[in-house]
């Protein structure tokens, strides 16, 4: 190309060409805008939205808010409350077309105008849990005309988006941003006020299809103190630390004391750590309980944020040694999940009524920063293998539906070094022995010394060494150590 400074004529031609191109683009944009405005009537979908809001398509304003898929029921409750107070007779409408759940509402409405890809359709509904055995109907794709707090016309939209992270999206269409934002904020306030997860027992799990968490509602266990067999004073100390602080929350805050607390239960597998945690769940009836196990550990940040918003709350991390192993034992000295756990515990303010309950089978393996730093764990309680008195108590507990015509002290003497899980299985096997003897009976009338003796012999047979290890029983020093170390991460049922 010739330089315009040496060939002024050519430069003037290029400048004129650029001006002509710019003018052409301006005409194209203006024509497109006029065409879109005209097509408000040509597209029933756009006409329904813009006709209610009272502005042409190119003046329509949209604001949005994303929620995790497990918050869908809460969002629906908030929307329902908003509509009930403003437009109780409002009717939802939907969008017809392909790829609906992989797009967004703004793009779909634009495509309805420019390409005719989407059109007016029926709303789509699904269900979402609001309790262990209860669910509600939720809008998965739909729009509804209503009004803003100041009376201005707006349209609410909901879309469940199926992508890398499954989300539920709230959209508000209005004539200006301030109006749309006011509606969004009011719906969100109502959502928080009517949160269906408050006071529930929640389990965080991992989805094989999406990267976000799955949250399920679990039944709250109810155990009597007599059903928790621990050495004298242990359960009382645990209960005072967790439940007692909750019962005196207001007085403690008034006295300048913090509510946040951390409890560590440690001991061999099967000794009753999970059982003790279940007892605490039943004692904290008004608290939101959030359980994290296995792969769901990576959602710790989300779980703690939920606990903070739904306090009083309890965050339970079982087998925490799988997350918080001593950094010296990790190849590069870094453990992202460990850092998430420590940051989450540090991030809760002292006046937050949030309890962290951690369990471990390997307390000696825990990261020192977790086990020793003040403010993270302020009570550590060992849940040991039961002593003689404890084993007798467990035999009575697990045999409470039967008549026990046996010398329980003798049975307990023969089972030294076992766990609560072992005793539970022992009673079950004694029942099976009795059933095999009385094949005509639907249930044994009683358990005798002979029934327990046969069950003990069976469980202490050398061939049952692996079973005993799985149940957390201490290994006999004279037994071969071929299975030693296999049970370090075994969960418990005792």
Describe this structure in words.
- The structure is a single chain.
- The protein is elongated.
- Helix 9 links the parallel strand 11 and strand 12.
- The longest helix has 35 residues.
- The protein folds into four domains: 34 residues; 147 residues, no CATH class; 169 residues, P-loop containing nucleotide triphosphate hydrolases (Rossmann fold, 3-Layer(aba) Sandwich), CATH 3.40.50; 83 residues, Helicase, Ruva Protein, domain 3 (Orthogonal Bundle).
- The termini are far apart.
- It has 494 residues and is of the alpha/beta class.
- The strands form four sheets. It has a seven-stranded mixed beta sheet, with helices on both faces.
- 36% of the residues are buried.
- It contains 16 helices and 16 strands.
- Helices cover 40% and strands 20% of the residues.
- Helix 3 crosses helix 5.
């Amino acid at each position: 190309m010739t330089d315009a400074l040496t060939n002024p004529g050519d430069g003037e031609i290029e400048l004129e060409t650029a001006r002509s191109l710019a003018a052409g683009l301006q005409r194209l944009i203006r024509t497109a805008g006029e065409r879109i405005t005209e097509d408000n009537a040509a597209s029933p979908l756009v006409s329904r939205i813009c006709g209610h809001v009272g502005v042409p398509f190119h003046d329509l304003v949209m604001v949005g808010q994303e929620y995790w898929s497990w918050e869908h029921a809460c969002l629906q409750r908030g929307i329902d409350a908003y509509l009930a107070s403003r437009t109780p007779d409002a009717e939802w409408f939907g969008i017809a077309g392909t790829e609906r759940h992989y797009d967004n509402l703004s793009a779909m409405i634009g495509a309805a105008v420019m390409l005719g890809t989407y059109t007016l359709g029926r709303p789509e509904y699904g269900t979402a849990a609001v309790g262990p055995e209860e669910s509600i109907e939720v809008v998965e794709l739909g729009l509804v005309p209503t009004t803003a707090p100041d009376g201005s016309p707006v349209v609410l939209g909901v879309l469940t988006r199926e992508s890398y992270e499954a989300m539920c999206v709230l959209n508000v269409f209005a004539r200006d941003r301030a109006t749309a934002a006011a509606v969004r904020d009011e719906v969100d306030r109502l959502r928080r006020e009517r949160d269906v997860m408050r006071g529930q027992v929640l389990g965080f799990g991992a989805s094989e299809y999406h990267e976000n968490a799955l949250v399920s509602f679990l039944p709250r266990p109810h155990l009597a103190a007599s059903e928790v067999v621990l050495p004298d004073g242990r359960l009382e100390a645990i209960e005072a630390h967790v439940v007692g602080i909750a019962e005196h929350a207001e007085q403690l805050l008034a006295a300048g004391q913090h509510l946040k607390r951390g409890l560590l239960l440690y001991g061999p597998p099967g000794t009753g750590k999970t059982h003790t945690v279940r007892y605490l769940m039943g004692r904290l009836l008004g608290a939101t309980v959030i359980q994290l196990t296995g792969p769901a550990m990576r959602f710790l940040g989300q779980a703690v944020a939920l606990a903070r918003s739904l306090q009083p709350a309890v965050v339970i991390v079982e087998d925490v040694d799988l997350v918080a192993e001593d950094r010296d034992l990790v190849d590069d000295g870094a453990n992202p999940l460990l850092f998430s756990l420590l940051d989450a515990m540090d991030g809760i303010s002292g006046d937050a009524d949030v309890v962290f309950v951690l369990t471990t089978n390997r307390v000696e393996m825990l990261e020192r920063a977790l086990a020793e730093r003040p403010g993270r764990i302020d009570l550590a309680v060992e849940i040991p293998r039961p002593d003689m008195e404890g084993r007798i108590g467990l035999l009575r507990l697990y045999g409470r539906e039967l008549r026990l015509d046996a010398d329980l002290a003798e049975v307990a003497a023969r089972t030294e070094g076992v766990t609560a899980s072992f005793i539970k299985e022992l009673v079950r096997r004694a029942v099976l022995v009795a059933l095999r003897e009385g094949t005509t009976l639907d249930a044994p009338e009683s358990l005798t010394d002979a029934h327990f003796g046969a069950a003990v012999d069976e469980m202490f047979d050398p061939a049952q060494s692996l079973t005993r290890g799985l149940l957390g029983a201490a290994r006999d020093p004279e037994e071969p150590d071929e299975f030693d170390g296999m049970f370090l991460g075994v969960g418990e049922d005792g």
